[in-house]
Amino acid sequence: MYLNPRILGSGERTLVLSHGYGGSQAIWDMMLPHLARRNKVLLFDWDFSSAPDAGEEGEQSCYTFSRFADELVALMDEMKLSGAVYVGHSMAGMVGCIASVKRPDLFAHLVLVGASPRYMNSEDYEGGFDKSDIEAMLGSIALDFRGWAEGFVPLAVGSADPSAVEPLARSFFAMDPRAAHGLARMIFLGDQRGVLDDVAVPCTLVHVSRDFAAPPCVGRYMQARMLAARCAAATMETIDSVGHFPQLVAPDELLGILDLVLGDAHEDADGEETAAAAAALAEEMSSEVPAGGLAEAAPEVQGDIDVAT
């Protein structure tokens, strides 16, 4: 379920950058020159980032959070990584939580960016979406995924800036519509709140102040539940911005938080050393992108949805 793994940069610390629904590893491009200066950075694509055929018509994807977590563990074992700082965006945040419960030795710290264990509101929980909203969204995805994505992407980015919207739109449009629908069902109908009780790895929760998909109240819920259970440390940082993708609209603010997690001072990127590192990284990135693109594997399609509490 993962494609195109590659490691950039060097250093004693390893970062694992994991994208969410509709994204690809390119979502981190604006942050890579800074992160790879002093760290080894693992990037990869989940297989849904470009699935040419999600299976026979009428079938639904068998994606589950647990399967994604197993694939993350397998990838980190394959790369012989341990004690990494994991940065998971959106759905990948909960994937990292589950993986850390399965294999805590692989993770030194979890940075959960716009993560949510439950998107649906209930009497005692505010997730951001009413059940009717989710049902309508899933219906739109099933009926016309591209049409839905054309409206959703600018809203999710929180900006009309083409430099932010267009790259994300391309990765959304690369998804197979049936895979996109199955994955959306997994995410928006799922309930992973119980996982938070078992996370022992220190966590930093990062939320955008005006994010309709994962509002800050979700981060506060996660922090409180983790601290009440097993988590050694759970802090929350709020970025004063709009949208669900701070990598695209507030990269400097997100880098500042990551630098604090990594113990770095957030340095100005104007020096000769930084320029040379950025040039070397650009050359490395261009030489390592697979010639065949992302379309290397299709997801299994069996209709299994992970809604465990």
UniProtKB/TrEMBL annotation:
<protein>
    <submittedName>
        <fullName>Esterase KAI2</fullName>
    </submittedName>
</protein>
<dbReference type="InterPro" id="IPR029058">
    <property type="entry name" value="AB_hydrolase_fold"/>
</dbReference>
<dbReference type="GO" id="GO:0016787">
    <property type="term" value="F:hydrolase activity"/>
</dbReference>
<dbReference type="InterPro" id="IPR000073">
    <property type="entry name" value="AB_hydrolase_1"/>
</dbReference>
<dbReference type="Pfam" id="PF00561">
    <property type="entry name" value="Abhydrolase_1"/>
</dbReference>
<comment type="similarity">
    <text>Belongs to the AB hydrolase superfamily.</text>
</comment>
<keyword id="KW-0378">Hydrolase</keyword>
<feature type="region of interest" description="Disordered">
    <location>
        <begin position="290"/>
        <end position="309"/>
    </location>
</feature>
<feature type="domain" description="AB hydrolase-1">
    <location>
        <begin position="14"/>
        <end position="125"/>
    </location>
</feature>
